[in-house]
Amino acid sequence: MGHLNLPFTTSSKHHHRSPKRLHLLDLITFFFFFIVIVFFLLVFTPLGDSLAASGRQSLLEDPRQRQKLVESVMVGKGGSGGKGTVIDVCGVEYVDYMPCEDPKRNSGFSREMNYYRERHCPRAEEMQLCLVPNPRGYKVPVQWPESLHKIWHDNMPYNKIADRKGHQGWMKEEGPYFIFPGGGTMFPDGAVQYIEKLGQYIPMAGGTLRTALDMGCGVASFGGYLLAENILTLSFAPRDSHKAQIQFALERGIPAFVAMLGTRRLPFPASSFDLMHCSRCLIPFTAYNATYFIEVDRLLRPGAYLAISGPPVQWAKQDKEWADLQGVARGLCYELIVVDGNTAIWKKPIGDSCLPNKNEFGLEQCDESDDPSYAWYFTLKKCVSRIQSKKEDFGVGNMPKWPQRLSTAPLRAIQIKNGRDVFEADSRRWTRRVTYYKNSLNVRLGTPSIRNVMDMNAFLGGFAAAIISDPVWVMNVVPPRNPLTLDIIYDRGLIGVYHDWCEPFSTYPRTYDLIHVVNIESLTKDNTSGKNSCNLVDLIVEVDRMLRPSGTLIVRDSPEVIDKVDRIARAVRWTTSVHDKEPESHGRDKILIATKPLLSASPL
Q1: How far is CA 17 from CA 9, 30, 217, 324, in A?
Q2: Which spans in 45-144 are helix H?
Q3: What is the pLDDT at residue 59?
């Protein structure tokens, strides 16, 4: 059968497209779909945020562009729709941004005495002026006290500790949670049993002990379970190979911050702690002519206790280190209370120590020019600090027991001019103010939604004392430019640190439910010249980094400063309200209350 040959008609000619026209239409169609796909990727995936963040970062690498952004935010100009400049969200790689503890940046510093693990802050113009994002799937944290035992996995999805330390009872993953059984390397059966063991030799109950420091704390279960004894423990560890140990502690609602005992004094005054604890913290206490043990001695209150579990206490192949540790303790006249397995407990003397008598380690006292309570970027000394007051007056067992010590003017307050009157007036002032916050301004203090609290300019700790009955703990911060009143705060049975607010704080993002500050602008000025040392925009961006989504900032200051803070708060996307002060108070103070939105800084 042959092929049928149809004639070529005019109509069929009109339906047959030329190759040139077909090629052009295909290109147009391809280009259209390409634009749609690119638009989808940029808007609905993290790629767009990463590219945008890279572009913003390139712009802000120029100090002039950064300064223009700061100035624009300060005056409330720019932006779209007349809303003023809005500070952008950082890229996803900044989800756990800690400017002064950046592992990549700090890895270039010396390893000697772990210097590279200490604070090393970039210059202000080198830091990112953007809002740290939330991790994917971030949820409002589990509330206290349930958070002591479990937290949301997605809020810090780091399984390294769970994988490596789960068999020791540190933590484990279970469904959508991380679970904390309460164990540790030296107490795998749980912190409760371990604390009971220590309680056979240390007066844990009854209010004799109140302030404690846990060195190299892991996920801080020791400090968490000591709260049942009304002992307030501040836990610290570096940002190291365990990655997020302090981040886990704070998410659990346990007092903690990032620090390293390396080349500098820890940021606390002398004679602060009733108890110091090390559970396999691996601090070489006798190295560098016992420099680290001398720092422990500076921080311990007369009559306080030191407990060390793990190396080198009766540890295999560490006989010399164990002998040296005992020798240093003897040289400072510490009483060895007990050696129980791999745990040793000493008590610091209340009276005069053996110094300046000869001792086997050649320890000497510092000269009288040394201020043992100055500890902001202060290099460790190889001499024993002198106590400027009578040791008996603020020694363990001689001070009022907890909770009486909270409201009793301590010796170190009375030594200030008109100190007793200032102390009592400050206590009355803050009782009145906190009542106003709760009853008239509807601040959520006293509710389960607020656990981790910071007072950025604490003075005598009056704000923290006024909320002591709430289910909170307070990080009291005393700027080193101000009078060094942090020792009074510790004498009251509260905790805190020295910190200069022209630098970022040593904590992870999203760690505080409420941050409170009086006279915020003073934190950016040099007390001598009165000139700005930094700016309010960087400070508010740092507060945003520390504050949890849905968290609250309270600022008390003059109307002029409150107006500045209000403009900056809008630039970081907070909801704000401004209020008059309580009727009973004098002065011109206004009060700003700002709330950080839950999802405003989430590019994921």
Answers
A1: 15, 18, 77, 94
A2: 46-60, 63-75, 103-106
A3: 46
Q: CA end-to-end span of the chain, whole Å?
A: 68
Biggest CA–CA distance in the chain, Å, is 125
Instruction: Give the pLDDT confidence of 60-106 residue by residue, as tens digits.
Output: 457 888 889 999 998 876 554 456 789 999 999 999 999 999 988 89
**Which 3 state secondary structure label does DSSP give 554?**
strand
Q: Count Cα neighbours of 181 within 13 Å in the Cβ-side half-sphere.
A: 19
Q: How far is CA 208 from CA 220, 230, 462, in A?
A: 22, 10, 22
For residue 522, give the nearest of 546, 558, 472 by alpha carbon. 558
| 79 CB-contact burial (10 Å; exposed 0-12 / middle 13-18 / buried 19+) | middle
Secondary structure class of 170 (helix, strand, coil): coil
What is the rounded CA–CA span in Å between residue 308 and residue 463? 34
276 has which bridge partners?
213, 306
- Residue carrying structure tokens 């070529």: 8
Contacts of 218 (CB under 8 A, 6+ apart): 161, 165, 170, 184, 185, 237, 242, 245, 279
DSSP assignments along 146-167, one per residue: GGGTEEEGGGS---HHHHHHGG
* Structure tokens, 95: 């989800």
Kind and range of the H or E run holding 354: none
Give 247's DSSP letter.
H
In whole angstroms, give the CA distance from residue 90 to residue 84. 19
Closest CA to 495 of 206, 216, 192, 236: 236
pLDDT, tens digit (0-9, with 9 covering 90-100), for 536-593: 999 999 999 999 999 999 999 999 999 999 999 999 999 999 999 999 888 899 999 9
User: What residues are paired with 211 via a beta bridge?
Assistant: 232
| Rounded distance between C-alpha atoms, residue 409 and residue 592, angstroms | 31
- Secondary structure E strands in 143-293: 150-152, 172-174, 177-179, 211-215, 232-237, 256-258, 273-279
Q: What is the pTM of this model?
A: 0.89
- How far apart are the C-alpha atoms of 222 and 234, rounded to whole Å? 10
pLDDT in tens, 407-450: 999 999 998 899 999 999 999 999 999 999 999 999 999 999 99
* Backbone φ and ψ of 211, nearest 5°: -100, 135
